[in-house]
Amino acid sequence: MYRAILEAVRLGFQTVQVFTGNPRQLSCSQGQLFTKNQQQRESPPLTLDAVFQWQSECRRARFEKTASHASYLINLASPDEALWRRSIDAYGEELRRCSLLGIPYCVIHPGCHMGGGEQFGISRVAAALDEVHSNVPAGSVLTCLESTAGQGSSIGHRLEHLAEIIERVGSPNRVGVCLDTAHLFAAGYDFREHKYSRFVADLQRILGRSRVKVLHLNDSKKPLGSRVDRHEHIGHGLIGLTGFRPFVRDSIWSDMPKILETPKEKAPDGRDWDEVNRESLTSLM
To answer: Is residue 34 part of a domain?
Structure first.
């Protein structure tokens, strides 16, 4: 996992987002820390070596505001009791892993109500977070609910969803927000050029800007309000290059980790697209 830091440094980044486990599995190892010679499970707990290497490379690179992304299979809004319980256990484990590693932000999709309705899903997420918080001691790790595109029955494509979840949880100080530009755009929020000020005003009114702790900067392959989540390289999608200018220039985001989740492949000039996308963003500063 520490190799992600080495790669980020090579490409000129100042932070990184990682998966601490398999993003396609629900791992519930109860925060155990194994040494190399101990028996490990299918989704192994963190080794002492992994924790040491991660922390050492973070210090070397001066990466203080790193983030993890919880498993895609976690669904804290699920009406299925078994899946909901497994999701609670898995997310609690993710917070414990972040705590061991010293990762301050854990990004998670709120979940899908699967036909139960938005209000049901919102209450379900809040109840799940309360249970997780009761099982995992408060520490330095903040849950960051990610804004979603609104595909299917997903919760979080309206800022009001995120605000209501935070209002309902018993420990709102343990919950923040991650804004994803591609998701916001697909959900119908237009922040391009002269519409940016209105977006920020709405954000402040509904959520409060201080709730936002992480930004995902991704262009969108799909149009405004499509509610389809398809990421594109910066300036090559329907948000367009100038649509990102406010996010790299506005001082309210200056000290915030900004993560690229664009396709990982080679650009036409042979470079990594991550490097090209970083240059595209820094050219707007």
So the answer is: no
**What's the whole-model pTM score?**
0.93
- Residue 112: strand, helix, or coil: strand
Whichever domain contains 206, its CATH number is 3.20.20.150
| pLDDT score recorded for residue 25 | 67
Q: Dig out the tokens for 81 from the structure.
A: 């009791």
DSSP string, 124-164: HHHHHHHHHHHHS---S-EEEEEP----TTBS-SSHHHHHH
Tell whether 87 is covered by a domain.
Answer: yes
- In sequence order, what are the beta bridge partners of 112? 154
Is position 218 within any domain? yes
Number of domains composing the chain: 1
Alpha-carbon dihedral angle through residues 92, 23, 163, 103, given to the nearest 10 degrees: 60
Determine, yes or no, domain membership for 37.
Answer: no
Contact 41, 26 (CB under 8 A): no
Q: Which residues contact 165 (CB under 8 A, 6 or more apart)?
A: 110, 122, 125, 126, 129, 145, 155, 175
> Regarding predicted confidence, which is higher, 140 or 201?
201
